[in-house]
Amino acid sequence: MIGLLRINNLKIRAFPGLRSETRGTQHLCFPTHGAKTKARHGWGTQHFVVGATCLILMFTAGLSAQQAKPWEQIPIPPLHAFTPQQPKRIELKNGIVVFLQENHELPFISGSVLIPGGSLEEDASKIGMVSLYGETWRTSGTAKMDGDAMDELLESKAASIETSGGEDSTGISWDSLKGDSDQVFSLAMDLLFHPKFSDEKLTLAKQQAATGIVRRNDDEGEIAGREAMKLVYGPNSPYARQEELATIGAVKVADLEAWHEHTLKGKLIVGISGDFDPAAMEAKVRAAFESLPPATPAPVRHDEFPAAKPGVYFIQKGDVNQSNVQMVALGLDRHNPDVPTLAILNEILGGGFASRLFQKVRTELGLAYSVGGGFSLPYDHPGAFRVDVITKSASTVDATKAALAEIADLNTKPFTEEELKRAKENILNSFLFRYDTKGKVLAERERLEFYGYPADYLETYKAGLEKVSVADLNAAAKKYIHPDTLALLVVGNKDEITPPLDALDKGPVKTIDITIPMPNRGGQGAGSGTPGPRP
Amino acid sequence: MPRGSFSRITKIALAIALVSAVAAPAQDLKSFEQRITTKVLPNGLTIIICERKDAPVFSYTTFIDAGDVNDPSGESGLAHMFEHLAFKGTSQIGTTDYADEKIALAKVETANDAYEAEYLKPIDPDDRKLQDEHKAKLDELHKAFLAAQAEAHKYVVPNEFTDVAERNGATGLNAETGLDDTHYFWSMPENRLELWAWLESGRLSDTVPREFYKERDVVNEERRMRTDSSPIGRLVEQFLATAYVAHNYGRSSIGWPSEVSQISATEAMEFHKKYYVGSNVVVVVVGDVDAKTAMPMLEKYFSKVPAGPKPEEMTTVEPKQFAEKSLVIREQTQPFYIEGYHRPSYRDPDDAVYDAISDIMSNGRVSRLYRSLVEQQQIAAEAEGFSPFPGDKYPSLFAFYAVPLPGHTPAEMRDAIHKEIDKLRTTDVTDAELQMYKTRTRADLLRGLANNQGLANSLAEYQTRYGDWRELFLQLDKVDKVTKADIRRVANEVFVASNRTSAEIDTEEAAAGQGATKQSGGAR
Lengths: 535, 524
Hints:
heterodimer, A: 535 residues, alpha+beta, Cytochrome Bc1 Complex, Chain A, domain 1, 6-stranded mixed β-sheet, disordered N terminus, disordered C terminus, B: 524 residues, 3 domains, 5-stranded mixed β-sheet
């Protein structure tokens, strides 16, 4: 069955190297590869706006063109009227917020409960606990139905209930055909309110986590993404630290139970979408959540964000013929009033095919397949400024210099009206795709609710983007782009890197040791009953 | 073997109820027949429009029935190279003066030919003088080659094709080259439909070999990233090269380094001429599009694609394997195990039986491999069987893989997988397992229908492979007909040692001290 395999993405998931794409990694805002992909909310910065009308932005003729531009003669009619359907927002007396998004196209109903609090808060001696919690919660099941029985029931109905543990939230989600939705909803609520964490399933989750830990130095891109974040935030920052065999080994069932009890008191956000009757669904959700005690507000975090330490850092990997180069610094969060300007700057620096980095390093120099970057702009904490380029070992210095030059040029090569216009068109003409499905609208509303942004945030943001001027760009570059403060990380094969990294003229090269700490034999292993990794 | 609380009979009853629930109004074949308009143009190109007016956007897929399996001998990676070229514009976009650019591009080809001829010249390794002359000549020719490129580059408006698309709201703009096929896709606001038709029909019919050699460097970087610098990438390339002795499925799909680095623009354009003909192309648009007004407009643009005979089918058929094969890569990365068995193509009457086996063995936490290797024996972090691999158009493989937990070995993975395979051969699967496969297949199909891009891809693929997009729905009949006996029969025919190729990574310890850099074994 050929199509279904594609839909399930099976081939690609199993073996990412099998199909070749023109642009493997999209570098739109923040590369999706690398560290912290577990977080549900970290950098999903996408946006929507109500009542988008057409944006007919014609092209400037000009450049050095002598040829006619036939595509400019093609009419662009007004866009069909469109008002994205907003979910109904219900705030319960206890502070819990419910979103109901009707969608009758297919006979499915899905839902989720978002629970504030995540791995940022876990104890330094138990890093990985929240991730283990997210896994064990579902596989353990409840007193009424254990996880294995739940698997049987759900799979027989082509339904699912899943739980997750992320950086700043955990959650439960479910999906089923309409006809099964009452039963699946009850099951999900049973799992939400009466989980029975099992030691056996925790051990299983620890084994899987241990497999990830011992394999984490196999893939060059994974190393680069992870270690770059440590340079940005510091190795012990909750935003960069990593689980170890010892820290997951220290996690006990009691930790998961305590975590669950604690976080369930927070301000939950419930989202339901699909083929339901809104009145009946509202009654059902109220019945499940209204009797909970008043939600306790999430504690305010007091993280420190010292600047990254500039310099050149190197990690040796003997089995590659390419270098993965990361150029990073501490960035900003989305509350910053300059965010619309920085989003435009991102587009010009590393956004699409026409961006400065892509044009120079890939198209003109042919030095990379994957190049891009910019500010990540998360909702609630300073993100990273990151530019990355992947190039053959021998061109490591050339490609790094070329990318650094593009970063430096942000300050020295003034932005042009044409660049601004292109970036605005790129962003604004595709703005529609932030809310073109009911599911995206719902997800955005949940996200804004979670981070405490106004519901009309996207409209404000879009208006901000429209106002950005060349002067704004030049000022923002001056304020936020400091090439000398960048930390440069190269993961690659030293023997092949000629000229060597000294040729970057950025001072002595510091080697980072990424040896995986192995707990003492006989000590706490990855999980009971599992032999530790081979010496 | 399942230890759930549900009896078999309950499950079957549930599944039957589900089948009727699924026959919802908007999502059966009939409703799609009302919303889909198909037209075959005089040049042989098929256009399908599927109206789905949820939001003022559309997605498209252009599906070319040619991929890297069609690369001529010595030119592996060619289809993919051409795909990259298709983003470089046409005689009308991406250039300041095409008439002059064309002349300059011809000179690039001449310079490349001269360089390649010298490069490939056999030189006596003991003759120092000849060696020096050869090297000097190469340097000179390479300089001339670079100069010719620089000259041609003067006419280039870099990335203008993609720039126009992105400025007009194109999202998810990309392309994929597989072994079997190549497809191009993006999504756009619906008022850009005609602009898209101009861009897309232009690049299909009027490709210019612009900046080809720079792009070849980019593709070489892509190879280093996906294959050379990835342990699994290296393993899979060697695994397929071992499993196949004759058919192109055994050849590196991104291209062997020596070949992909010597592909010329002329070769890419020849590939285009042969395979990018109307009869080999299906274009599908899904979204807020009115077929009545859009079809004549699309017809006008896509008629520009040259007509041409459907390219002849490949003569090579992989001969029956009669000897078990295995390969071991010893290096300092973590262990991994994969094995594959030759199976027929998607056209085989048993195609759905293979799907059933892969579902029962691999789909979710109830699957046999998960329950056995991950949950019960606790030797693997992940274990699955899947097919067809690496393609579906030609006889391919049914593959199994497992990721060992720390301290466990590929050999344990192999033995555990074989035990599960033996069960399939000797004992019928349960009614519940079989029914689960059928139920999930139906639901998965439905779930895929609410996504413009996913739907465009599926319709294009089924139209190409079966000559009729309806097969996307009709295949469910074949799914329903799969029996327990079919599964046992197929397992006994296919999962036999003489039909098997296996590959594994055995972890070598680092030499004393830190950071030994060389790997041994057959992967490089």
